[in-house]
C-alpha cells in the first residue's frame, strides 16, 4: 500500500479543498463503517492474495504495454498503449469491481448495488457478483436502458436485477441518486459498489487504490521496455476519472512524469453540449463530494453531453480537481469529432478498435508535441465493441 | 426568545408541514404558506427544490422537478417570501440540499434568511463537522438555527454531540428510509424513539419521514414535541394547489 502524499486524500478524504463526505445523516453510519475498515482490508495479506490472484487468472492481468509502432512513427515519438481493453469484460472497470466485491465480502455484506451509465460498470459489477454468488442490483437511467440494450441484456444474463432510474434526467447522475436512496433504505446488508473515483470519502480513494494496479504495471513494464524506469507522459481520459486515477497513481510523486487528463468536450467546451467539467471550472457538491461540476447559476446540476457515455458525467473525481488546481496534471479536452477521428486512426494504423472513451485520450496526440526520445503512455481504457453502433452510424460502414 | 424557542416552550403536539417552494405553480409558495398558517399549522419547512434530491422519495422528487421546471430558484424564493412576516407569524425553516446554498454563497444566504425572517435551516448534506468549524458562528450571529437529522443508525454519542451543537430542534428521521416511504409506525421505531428520549437531550425533537395521517402523527407526538408531515401534504397540493379549504381540511384531519 502506498503512503499518503500531498496528492492523496487526508484522513477526512480531502484532496486540498476537494472531496470530503457531503452526505445526509442517513448515510453517515454506512460511510463511517466503510471508512473504518477499507484501508485495513485492502492492506491485509488475505485480501491482497485473493485480489491479485483474481486479477491474474480471472481478469487476465498484467495487461500488456504495447509499443504502437505505426502510431509512434506518425507522431515521431514512442507511444505505448496500456491495454486495459484486453481485460475480461473489455475495460478497466473490472479491476475495481473485483476489489470492491472482496471488500464487501470481508464486511459480511450480502447484497450489492451499483450505478451505471452506459452499462460498463454495471456489467463489471454483475460479473463480479456472479463470480462471488452475491445478489446484484444495478441502477440505470431509463434513457440509458433504451440506448444500451446489449449491456442491459448482459447484466440480466449475469443474474443482476436492472432497475430503471425514472427521475430527473433519467441518466447516470439519476442512477447514482437512486443507488444512494437504496443504500439509505438498506443500511445493514447492502454494499454500494461505486464505479468511479467519485462519491463521498472513502470512495474516491478506495477506487483509486483498486485501479492503481494500472500504474504499478506501467512502471514495471516501461523499465523493461526502455532505458528509463519512468515514462515521460501518461495520458488518460476522464469522466469521473477512474482509469486516469489508476494510471497516475504511482507517478503522482514523480514530477518527471507529465500527467495528462483528457475530458470530453462534446460539441465544444462553449457549446452547451459538453462534459468538460474542468474546462468549465465551477465548484460545488455532487454525489457527496466537493469538486468541479456543471451547474446552473442557481446551483442545479446540469446534464452533460458527450458522444461517449462513459465520460458523460457532470462532475469529476475530487483528486482530479486537486491535480488541476495544483497544476500536477494538465487537462485537455477533445470533441466528439476529434475522438472519432482518433478512433479511426488507431484502428487503421494498429488494428485496435478503441472504446470512444479511450479515443478521447488518443485525440490528445494532435494537441501536444513530443520529442523523439519521449516515451508516451496512453491508457486504452476499453475496447470499442460496445461502440460499434456509433462507429457504423458515423463512419457509414 | 426567538420564534422557534417560543413554539417549543409553549406548545406540544406540534404540527409541522413540509412543502416544496414553487409547487405546483411557481407563485403558490406564499399562498400555501398563508393557508397553512390559517389552518393552524405550527411550523413550516419550506423546501428549496434541487436537481438531485438524493434523500427524497418519489413524491418530493417529482415536486422538486416540477418546481424547477416552473423556473423556481433560491433568488425567486427570497423574492416570494420577502414580505412574509407581514402575514405569517409561525416559524419558517428552509430545507434543501447544500449545493444551491453553496453556489448562492453561504454568507449572502444567511444574511438573506435573516432579512426575510427565516428562523432556521435544514441542510441534510452539510456535514456536521464542517458546519461546526466553518459556519456555526455565522448562523449564531444571524440568529438562524441549524437543524440536524438523526436516524435509527445514529449512535448515542453522536446524538449527544449533535444535541450540544443544536439551537433549534433535532429532526428525528423515523426509519432507515427516504421521505414518504412508510405508512405506519412500527415497534422498532418506537424503541428507537425511546432510546433517543432516554439520552436526556436539551434540544426538542420533531419526528419526520413516514408521518402521513392522524394515526402516525399522534403516535409520533407521544415520543417527541411533534411531527413533520411532508410527502402526504405535497401530494395534496399537487392535486389541489394552494386551495385554502383543502389545506384546512387536511390539517384538521391530522391534528
TrEMBL record, chain A:
The modification N6-(pyridoxal phosphate)lysine is found at residue 93. InterPro entries: Trp_synth_b_CS (IPR006653), Trp_synth_beta (IPR006654), Trp_synth_beta/beta-like (IPR023026), TrpB-like_PALP (IPR001926), TrpB-like_PALP_sf (IPR036052). Its EC number is 4.2.1.20. Pathway: Amino-acid biosynthesis; L-tryptophan biosynthesis; L-tryptophan from chorismate: step 5/5. Keywords: Amino-acid biosynthesis, Aromatic amino acid biosynthesis, Lyase, Pyridoxal phosphate, Tryptophan biosynthesis. HAMAP family: Trp_synth_beta (MF_00133). This is Tryptophan synthase beta chain.
UniProtKB/TrEMBL annotation, chain B:
It is an enzyme of class 4 (lyase). The keyword Amino-acid biosynthesis applies. The keyword Nucleus does not apply. InterPro entries: Aldolase_TIM, RibuloseP-bd_barrel, Trp_synthase_alpha_AS, Trp_synthase_suA. The active site is at 45 (proton acceptor), 56 (proton acceptor). GO terms for molecular function: tryptophan synthase activity. Pfam families: Trp_syntA. It catalyses: (1S,2R)-1-C-(indol-3-yl)glycerol 3-phosphate + L-serine = D-glyceraldehyde 3-phosphate + L-tryptophan + H2O. It comes from the Bacteria. Pathway: Amino-acid biosynthesis; L-tryptophan biosynthesis; L-tryptophan from chorismate: step 5/5. Its EC number is 4.2.1.20. Tetramer of two alpha and two beta chains. The alpha subunit is responsible for the aldol cleavage of indoleglycerol phosphate to indole and glyceraldehyde 3-phosphate. This is Tryptophan synthase alpha chain.
Amino acid at each position: 500500500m502506498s503512503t499518503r502524499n500531498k496528492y492523496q486524500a487526508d484522513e477526512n478524504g480531502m484532496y486540498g479543498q476537494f472531496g470530503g463526505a457531503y452526505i445526509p445523516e442517513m448515510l453517515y453510519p454506512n460511510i463511517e463503517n466503510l471508512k473504518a475498515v477499507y484501508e485495513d482490508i485492502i492492506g491485509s495479506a488475505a485480501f491482497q492474495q485473493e485480489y491479485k490472484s483474481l486479477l491474474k487468472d480471472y481478469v487476465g492481468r498484467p495487461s500488456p504495454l504495447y509499443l504502437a509502432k505505426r502510431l509512434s512513427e506518425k507522431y515521431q515519438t514512442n507511444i505505448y498503449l496500456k491495454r486495459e481493453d484486453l481485460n475480461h469484460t473489455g475495460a478497466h472497470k473490472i479491476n475495481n469491481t473485483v476489489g470492491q466485491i472482496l471488500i464487501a465480502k470481508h464486511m459480511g455484506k450480502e447484497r450489492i448495488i451499483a450505478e451505471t451509465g452506459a452499462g460498463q460498470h454495471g456489467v463489471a459489477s454483475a460479473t463480479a457478483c456472479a463470480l462471488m454468488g452475491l445478489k446484484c442490483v444495478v441502477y440505470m437511467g431509463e434513457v440509458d436502458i433504451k440506448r444500451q440494450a446489449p449491456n442491459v441484456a448482459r447484466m440480466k444474463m449475469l443474474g443482476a436485477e436492472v432497475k430503471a432510474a425514472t427521475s430527473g434526467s433519467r441518466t447516470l447522475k439519476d442512477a447514482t441518486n437512486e443507488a444512494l436512496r437504496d443504500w439509505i433504505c438498506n443500511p445493514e446488508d447492502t454494499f454500494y459498489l461505486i464505479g468511479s473515483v467519485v462519491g463521498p470519502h472513502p470512495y474516491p480513494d478506495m477506487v483509486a487504490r483498486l485501479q492503481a494496479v494500472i500504474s504499478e504495471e506501467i512502471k514495471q513494464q516501461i523499465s523493461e521496455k526502455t532505458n528509463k524506469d519512468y515514462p515521460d507522459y501518461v495520458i488518460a481520459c476522464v469522466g469521473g476519472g477512474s482509469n486516469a486515477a489508476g494510471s497516475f497513481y504511482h507517478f503522482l510523486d514523480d514530477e518527471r512524469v507529465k500527467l495528462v487528463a483528457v475530458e470530453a468536450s462534446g460539441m465544444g467546451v462553449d457549446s452547451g453540449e459538453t462534459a468538460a467539467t474542468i474546462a468549465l471550472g465551477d465548484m460545488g457538491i455532487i454525489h457527496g463530494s466537493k469538486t468541479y461540476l456543471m451547474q446552473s447559476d442557481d446551483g442545479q446540476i446540469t446534464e452533460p453531453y458527450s458522444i461517449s457515455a462513459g465520460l458523460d458525467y457532470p462532475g469529476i473525481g475530487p483528486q482530479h480537481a486537486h491535480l488541476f488546481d495544483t497544476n500536477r496534471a494538465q487537462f485537455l479536452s477533445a470533441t466528439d469529432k476529434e475522438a472519432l477521428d482518433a478512433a479511426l486512426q488507431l484502428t487503421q494504423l494498429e488494428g485496435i478498435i478503441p472504446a470512444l472513451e479511450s479515443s478521447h485520450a488518443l485525440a490528445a496526440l494532435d494537441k501536444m508535441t513530443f520529442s523523439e526520445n519521449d516515451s508516451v503512455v496512453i491508457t486504452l481504457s476499453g475496447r470499442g465493441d460496445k461502440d460499434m453502433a456509433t462507429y457504423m452510424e458515423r463512419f457509414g460502414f | 426568545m426567538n420564534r422557534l424557542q417560543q413554539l417549543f416552550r409553549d406548545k406540544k403536539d406540534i404540527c409541522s408541514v413540509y412543502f416544496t417552494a414553487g409547487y405546483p405553480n411557481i407563485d403558490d409558495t406564499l399562498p400555501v404558506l398563508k393557508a397553512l398558517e390559517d389552518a393552524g399549522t405550527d411550523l413550516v419547512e419550506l423546501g428549496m427544490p434541487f436537481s438531485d434530491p438524493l434523500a427524497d422519495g418519489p413524491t418530493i422528487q417529482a415536486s422538486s422537478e416540477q418546481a424547477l421546471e416552473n423556473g423556481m430558484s433560491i433568488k425567486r424564493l427570497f423574492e416570494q417570501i420577502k414580505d412574509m412576516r407581514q402575514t405569517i407569524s409561525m416559524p419558517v425553516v428552509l430545507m434543501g440540499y447544500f449545493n444551491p446554498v453553496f453556489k448562492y454563497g453561504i454568507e449572502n444566504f444567511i444574511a438573506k434568511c435573516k432579512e426575510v425572517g427565516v428562523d432556521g435551516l435544514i441542510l441534510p448534506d452539510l456535514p456536521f463537522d464542517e458546519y461546526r468549524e466553518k459556519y456555526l458562528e455565522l448562523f449564531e450571529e444571524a440568529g438562524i438555527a441549524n437543524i440536524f437529522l438523526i436516524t435509527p443508525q445514529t449512535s448515542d454519542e453522536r446524538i449527544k454531540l449533535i444535541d450540544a451543537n443544536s439551537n433549534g430542534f433535532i429532526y428525528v428521521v423515523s426509519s432507515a428510509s427516504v421521505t414518504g416511504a412508510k405508512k405506519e409506525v412500527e415497534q422498532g421505531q418506537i424503541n428507537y424513539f425511546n432510546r433517543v428520549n432516554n439520552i436526556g437531550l436539551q434540544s426538542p425533537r420533531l419526528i419526520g419521514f413516514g408521518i402521513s395521517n392522524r394515526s402516525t402523527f399522534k403516535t409520533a407526538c407521544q415520543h417527541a414535541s411533534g411531527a413533520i408531515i411532508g410527502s402526504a401534504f405535497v401530494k395534496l397540493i399537487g392535486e389541489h394547489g394552494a386551495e385554502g379549504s383543502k389545506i384546512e381540511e387536511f390539517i384538521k384531519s391530522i391534528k
